[in-house]
Write a sequence for this structure.
């Protein structure tokens, strides 16, 4: 059976959002979207894609989660939604222990972020990769439990590929 590639919320947003204008910021986002789609193509023959339930919860901000999941199915094909199980929650607690310990008593609330829960689920199911747009979100939690899960930064081109360059709009002086 193929290993999992767990998709982070940032990647889901990149896969399910289209370009809206040609501003410099949007052109950069378009580069990231293209690189993310290239990674999905690159990984597809070697993995099963999975979306952890905390990412589904995060998706309810800009659109409904159901709308995102439908768009995701068009972008990556089949995928599995992974639940936050008791064992994954215990892994998340280990991942967040330092962050929780560093907070004053009574201020522990909010110490466990969505990213920690996503990392814990990936570790718990034995995923090969967490595919994200921001390595910093996952390095610390995964190191805290010596996880073998690899971080793929989807906004950079896959090995052996170059990113297609989109002409940047000229700055007005």
């Amino acid at each position: 059976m193929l290993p999992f590639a767990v998709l982070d919320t940032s990647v889901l947003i990149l896969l399910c959002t289209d370009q809206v204008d040609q501003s410099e910021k949007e052109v950069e986002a378009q580069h990231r979207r293209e690189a993310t789609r290239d990674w999905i193509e690159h990984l597809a023959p070697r993995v099963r894609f999975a979306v952890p339930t905390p990412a589904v919860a995060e998706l309810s901000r800009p659109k409904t989660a159901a709308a995102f999941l439908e768009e995701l199915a068009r972008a990556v094909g089949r995928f599995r939604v992974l639940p936050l199980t008791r064992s994954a929650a215990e892994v998340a607690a280990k991942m967040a222990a330092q962050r929780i310990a560093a907070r004053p008593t009574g201020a522990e609330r909010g110490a466990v972020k969505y990213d920690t829960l996503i990392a814990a689920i990936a570790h718990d199911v034995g995923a090969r990769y967490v595919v994200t747009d921001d390595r910093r979100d996952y390095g610390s939690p995964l190191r805290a439990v010596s996880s073998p899960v690899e971080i793929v930064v989807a906004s950079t081109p896959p090995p052996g590929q170059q990113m297609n360059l989109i002409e940047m709009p000229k700055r007005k002086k």
